[in-house]
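request received
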Amino acid sequence: MARLIIYAWFPHLAADRIRRTTPAPNVGKSGSGLILHTAKYHGADIVEAVCARARRRGLHTGMRLADARAICPELTSFDSNPAADAADLHQLALWARRYCPLTAPDDGNPISGQVAIGQSTMFRAGAKSGQKQGVNSARIAFAGDGIWLDVAGADHLYGGIRPLLADLARRLRKAGLTVRLGVAPTCGAAWALARYGRSARYVLAGPKSKAGSEKDASRKAIGAALAGLPLAALRIDDALCITMRTAGLRVIGDIINMPRAPLAARFGPQLIERLDAALGYVNESFAPIAPPRPLLTVQNFAEPVAAPDDIKAVIRRLTNDICLLLQSEGMAARRLRLGWKLLDGGVGIKDVHLSRPNRDNAAFHRLLADVSENINPEFGLEMAWMEAHGCSPQAPVAIGFHDGISPSESHADLVDRLVARLGYGAVLHMKSHASWQPEMAQYMALPDVEPQGFEIQGFEPQGFETRGGFEAEGGATNYLHSEMVPPRPIRLLAHPEPLSVIALLPDHPPAQFVWQKRIHKVSRASGPERIAPQWWVATKGTKTRDYFRLQDDQGARFWVYREGLVERGEDTKWFLHGFFA
Amino acid sequence: MAATNQNASPKYEEKRRNFHKLQSDVAVLDGRLLRRRVPLGVDDLDSALAGGLALGRVHMLCANWGGNIGAHGALTGFAICLLRQLLAQPDQDGPIVWCPSSSMAGSGILYGAGLAALGLDPGRLLIVDAPSPNRRLAVLEDILRTKGLSAVVVEYDSMRKSSDYWMRLARRAQLAAEASGTTGFLLGWPVAASGFETIWKIKPAIDEPAIGDAHNMNMRASMTLMPWRPTWDVELAHARGGRAYETRLIWDVHTNIISNNTNNTMHESQPDLAIDTPIDRHSNQPITPDHPVYYMHDGLRVDGERRRNAG
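response:
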């Protein structure tokens, strides 16, 4: 049976993505601005992708944005996002699996085949690879932007190739994508027809049932269809095209019937390779993508399960199954999701997080130990499932006989157990933030797999290669001996509490203050440390603070500040902000 | 065993050493050998503790400041002092798990820069945020069972529980701590608890220089230059294997030395960034609450009575 390859080319993939995702009503619609995508190249904005209206106005890729704006001032330009385009293509290729099991996105990488077709500069210069070879070759920037479908044997499901194409085109157009389709028995011919064919949808008829070998007839048909297409349709370099044009060869029909040896000698072997691939003399194929398979185990029950012991047994079984699945796939998961379906149709979900990717059966059991208490089965569970998310490949680990659990693993284990018991977000690390505002200088963050250190504002670590400037010998004492460290309390109140204070003006520390209805007489004071607000972000009216460290006559130590400066004539208010040792 | 002199060859000695090491390892595993004790540096206190602070056990630190609420920092500071003595031992590289009281509880959140100022690296703290003291004590046992941690600190604030509850908690926690070798500290208000390794009552105190020291002519000047050393009135209410003891402790943060006499050795460490006691600009005397007050009126100095300026 003859092969049948469809190549769907999206000439304005980036523009269509913008039109789909931008909520602005007048983006590229009729009667309003055009869309361009740009990227910086050597400091100048270069147009990478245009929409159809821009193309009609004469804008093309490779020109500078300034020139484009000069030609049509009302255009709208966006930054190019090749990652988003590649993701779109990937999604389209996955969607196209509704027609056939073998699909692949064409993102500018060379197609594999039995003949080593070699890395042509055309594909290297693609915008997807992010390399720019010069303004001229940026013309081939959309060498990708298409998907392959191998529909041999699948067209009868739609009643023929034409109905299949019609369905494909209709659905893509409904999604807002402009598409050109090319169908041929070879990849090369499909590519050429989609890109350079004259009509929007180009179908190559199968070989007529006549005498002669089928392959020969199809090759003749392909040759006939490709005859009028320019040489660039063979996926060869621009430079080679120009060379051949100076030799007088412009269309494929010029070279199809020429003797091959002189061609190869004159223009290189790549030309002959591509020609053979397009005509079908050489097999060329693409590597189909596989959809991501979820790691999921499901258990259906013949009778609804409601007893607590039964639910525990169900959870145990699901955990064992998911561990086996992870082991067979060689993956480790960071999040487990247990789901159950009740008899009345309700669905419940419980997520369990792990601090590092794990597939240890015992660890999973420990984390899921208390889950069954939170399940309210009502009339019974009909179905239960467990998914593993955040999977990453993990090689099998050899366990020695003498090692116990290493301390780092038991620490991660502890974090997991605490998180399972107290909730996600209960276990935190202190992280420092470079800010002189005391309440902004610290935040709590979830523990990450690689612990990072705590850096202290105003302290320059000298020659410490390890984390944060605090480790290494003498880290702590170096910090303490540093001259430039202002005193900071060990406990900070989340909301500073107002005090009534007796203090000499203008900037003396308090002699006595009243807090929580008790009078504290101050026996020793130090300060002030003046902290001004961040004038570039602070709201108007935030005042400068003068911080004092006070010791009262009982020995307790406080961090007290006065908000407002007398010399500026502001109203002053005193607050308690923290406690010292 | 009879050690005869003719067997004193090196190989035999090594075998004997290995055998004794094996014996002690087995004894440790059996739990018969006592845990390490960290001497605190104050002789009388160490003898009251029967050698020092016991590792692998649970200690309770209570606040004892009577009517002076507001010394939350002092209790935390003493806990950090003990932690630093503990961390000065070898092999204490693991993280420290701290379960602080809720940020709304009135004693504030732990502040990393302040902890660093006392010499404790905040990067090695693992904060467990559980708003209710019941839950914190519930996970205490679980955390104590983990190997590889340096210490665990749990703040239970002012929970009111029966002494039975505390006895049961203490027993479970001590067993867990012994099994894993992790030291635990409980911080909070005084409760009728028994079963913990040591029970301390902490009160902040004023760090006063000794009067009449020959080095300091001007006591006020020396006070200005003296660093702020954390000082506590410490009462060791109960120590297993030891006796009760009371003393005043002063902790020198830079050298990590605890002392119990108020000697005012002038330290080479730097004073605070700004002036300690405010200095009166005209007379160059430090201002204390008894200092006479004057104010400037049209450029003339006018002596006046003590005026109170409420801030």
